[in-house]
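Structure ticket #2291
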Amino acid sequence: MNTICVLLADNQTIIRDGLRALLEACPDIQVIAEANNGRQAYEMVIEHHPDVVLMDIRMPEVDGVDATRLIKDNFPETTVIILTTFDDDEYIINAMTCGASGYLLKDIGGEKLIEAIRDGVRGNIILPGRIAAKITSRLVQNQTSKVELDDFTEREKEIIKLLVLGKSNREIAQILLLSVGTVKNYISQIYSKANINDRTNAVLLFKKIGL
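Resolution: structure written out below.
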């Protein structure tokens, strides 16, 4: 069983304590570090290289959105999941466009949070059902008209379909009998054609246009 290493980023100690107790009861999850602001979260990612960051939005010094941008720009393989009390549309959109893999509210149940962490590591996007549709529409409304199926080769379409299914680069390579490096090159080409720069927006876009 592979252990999922988690970093908690929240300026409220009581929240971090509760999350640590919940997550460390799971045999496949380990909390390896805690941060009380976005700047510290980024520094902790540099030091500890977690698989997942559970990130609050409103924090001192650097907020969760800017911290997510910093992390995803420099550590794109790190999964960032926003966990907050704020369901403001702009927060959600900004976090997702910065590369967050999910946006969850703190009233989520413990079992659902644990499953969301596991889903995030698998490459899935996690959004509450009541906001997923409108956020997807907002994220891709300016791109959908510019991107068509004919823009992509048959191999690129195969990779896109696997991306949408939440497959990692390594899993895609195994399925298509390619090297991981080759898969990364294809994904870079796909991103360039679609004018996007992260996996989350890629999946949302390709779901929208029917790939």
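Closing remark: The chain has two domains: 4-132, 141-208.
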